[in-house]
Specification:
CATH class of the largest domain: Alpha Beta
Helix content: 25-40%
CATH topology of the largest domain: Beta-lactamase
Largest sheet: 7 strands, mixed
CATH architecture of the largest domain: 3-Layer(aba) Sandwich
Number of strands: 23
């Protein structure tokens, strides 16, 4: 009536479990031993603890770092270099300008990671922008957070390169274009050592200058280097959103670059050109190649001209000099990269005699009326010391004028009734006039020059100091060396009555806000010699032109005072020729030195015609006095 009752499945399962054999139970059950369970929980707990610690470290201690990386993964700051300040001469003539250009930079972190992708990137970027393989190797080697800093890929893209890049920009993750400018130098060879040049910052410079980026340019030589902080300006930025592959999506904003300050120099650009042309013309006529000209204002130390021959084209460096061109400059025997005016150390020869004359008068070794006879030389024991000619009886003025070596041997080392200064007093007075130490000119690379003494000779050469060393020192030979700048600066102090100034190239620093900072004259020392003694020395230098070794200058419309000189070097018959002078004699406005390097023998007067040509131009063009005509 009620039908069959359903069976209880659960009862069947319970019965199966209860009736299962031990062998069958082993197939469905694996007993976990206590020690294995304990080990499992310990290892699991340790892993969880380490993971927890890593999360805490990343959030609490390195959160800022990773947040910054995450931010830069989506937002890039593309730097925009600031235009460098313009450099003008004293009359407002620009000597350098900025030419707008486009460069390419990349963010190394955005570069492809896979080898295949990297190879494809390298091939494409080299074809489009003509980047060399070494530059790309350098970029790929950058890692870590440094990979977020822009890396300069190439400067001065051509129009064709820009168009090709923009049409294929998606192929170049992390690469972007930026506005820049390169320096263009006027009369580059003439002003090369003075202005210098800028170039791509090196790794060592970048390590020393934390405010710079690898894409920046920096002053390398000359005014470009010594006034880098004033010229460089403040870079701007374009904030740009990029995708995960480093491709730009949109510009978020810009911070404009602030141009650098302008510089107004004391340099007279036309005088600089005249000095270069006059020296270069004379050198070519004599088959020579090396020399220098420096002109100062004796009243305040302003540098009016500074020329070193040969020069070089500094535009080659600002545009990115090739290895072959740079190697050619380095291998040139005339050393065009070497600034002879401030870095060359030479025996000053007879240009040193006015300093020794002032010292002898100051120490009472002789007075203005003392006469010493030159018969062509003197003999001490078995040693002879010659004069360049028989000069007869000379007092101190005429000794300067005719450059009597015997007179200066006597007052320097002593001879006959004249006791002589001796090397210690000669060195002391030479130091007062600026020998043996840098002038402090606002250019890099200035040399010290050198003044010897007995202690130095004993230590350096293992020899005693002899009277012959005194004689050689007294006529600017032997161990004494000086730069052309040091020599003309010492003569400028004689011309102005006893004030030694720091020579200065830059007159003003002008900001874009209109504010101007004036470089005031800087005095090294003053009143270190009696005005009457300096007057006697000046009179001797005037006689050099009227009756001595520089008489070709007598025909100039204004009076000039000066001192010629030659100095032997090496073991051959080569000499360096000098002429240092100032004018007008009664109211000096310019002090001038000419160096002609490596002449044949005693060609004393190569320098005098150059000085005459420069003075003739200067008197007409700057002082408004008719010239004599070039002879």
């Amino acid at each position: 009536m009620f039908g069959k009752m359903p069976q209880r499945k659960g009862s069947e399962i319970d019965d199966a479990v209860l009736t299962i054999t031990e062998r069958d139970a082993a197939k469905i059950e694996w007993p976990l031993r206590r020690k294995w369970a304990k080990g499992y929980f310990i290892v699991s707990g340790l892993i969880l603890f380490l993971l927890f610690g890593r999360v805490v470290s990343m959030n609490l201690f390195q959160g800022g770092k990773y947040a910054d990386i995450a931010k830069h993964n989506s937002v890039r700051q593309i730097p925009q270099p600031a235009p460098r300040g313009i450099i003008f001469d004293r009359y407002g003539k620009p000597l350098v300008g900025n030419v707008p250009s486009i460069g390419a930079a990349l963010i190394p972190m955005d570069l492809p990671k896979e080898t295949v992708d990297r190879d494809r990137f390298r091939t494409a970027i080299m074809a489009v922008l003509h980047v060399d393989a070494g530059t790309l190797d350098e970029a790929f080697a950058i890692g870590g957070t440094a990979g977020l800093s822009p890396f300069l890929l190439k400067e001065k893209l051509t129009q064709e390169e820009m168009i090709a890049f923009l049409s294929r920009q998606k192929e170049f993750p992390g690469v972007s274009l930026f506005k820049t400018a390169y320096r263009e130098y006027s009369d580059s060879v003439i002003f090369s050592h003075l202005i210098g040049y800028d170039g791509k910052i090196t790794e060592s410079e970048l390590a020393a200058e934390s405010a710079y980026l690898p894409t920046d340019m920096i002053g390398k030589q000359g005014i470009e280097k010594s006034y880098e902080n004033e010229l460089r300006g403040t870079r701007g930025y374009d904030r740009m959103e990029v995708d995960a592959f480093g491709h730009p999506k949109k510009v978020l904003g810009s911070i404009p670059a602030v141009p650098g300050n302008d510089l107004v120099l004391n340099i007279d650009a036309d005088l600089q050109k005249k000095a270069y042309d006059s020296l270069q013309t004379m050198l070519e006529s004599k088959g020579l190649s090396r020399g220098a000209v420096v002109a100062l204002d004796p009243k305040d130390g302003s540098v009016l001209a500074l020329v070193s021959v040969p020069g070089f084209d500094n535009n080659l460096f600002s545009e990115g000099i090739s290895n072959d061109a740079y190697r050619s400059l380095l291998q040139n025997a005339a050393k065009p990269l070497f600034d002879r005016a401030i870095s060359g150390e030479y025996a000053p020869g007879s240009t040193f005699k006015p300093v020794i004359a002032a010292a002898a008068l100051s120490e009472g070794v002789v007075d203005e009326h003392t006469q010493i006879e030159s018969k062509g030389g003197i003999t001490v024991g078995s040693f002879s010391f010659g004069d360049w000619r028989v000069n007869g009886l000379t007092d101190i003025r005429s000794a300067i004028a005719v450059s009597s070596d015997v007179f200066f041997y006597s007052i320097g080392g002593g001879y006959g009734p004249v006791s002589g200064l001796g090397i210690r007093r000669m060195k002391e007075y030479a130091s007062r006039f600026g020998y043996g130490d840098r002038t402090g000119i606002d250019l890099p690379g200035e040399a010290d020059g050198f003044l010897a003494d007995p202690e130095w000779k004993k230590k350096a050469m293992g020899e005693s100091w002899y009277i012959g060393d005194d004689y050689h020192s007294a006529i600017g030979q032997g161990f004494t060396t000086a730069t052309p700048l040091q020599i003309v600066n010492s003569i400028a102090a004689i011309a102005n009555g006893g004030t030694l100034y720091v020579p200065q190239i830059v007159s003003q620093v002008r900001g874009i806000d209109g504010n101007t900072v004036q470089n005031s004259p800087r005095v090294i020392r003053s009143a270190f010699m009696s005005p009457n003694i300096l007057k006697i020395v000046r009179e001797g230098m005037r006689e050099t032109v009227t009756d001595g070794t520089a008489t070709p200058l007598k025909t100039l419309p204004l009076p000039v005072a000066g001192k010629t000189g030659t100095a032997q070097f090496g073991t051959g018959d080569k000499t360096d020729g000098w002429f240092v002078s100032f004018a007008p004699y009664d109211d000096p406005k310019i002090a001038l030195i000419i160096l002609v390097e490596a002449q044949e023998g005693n060609e004393n007067y190569n320098t005098v015609p150059v000085a005459k040509d420069i003075y003739d131009w200067y008197f007409r063009e700057r002082l408004g006095v008719g010239g004599s005509g070039i002879q």
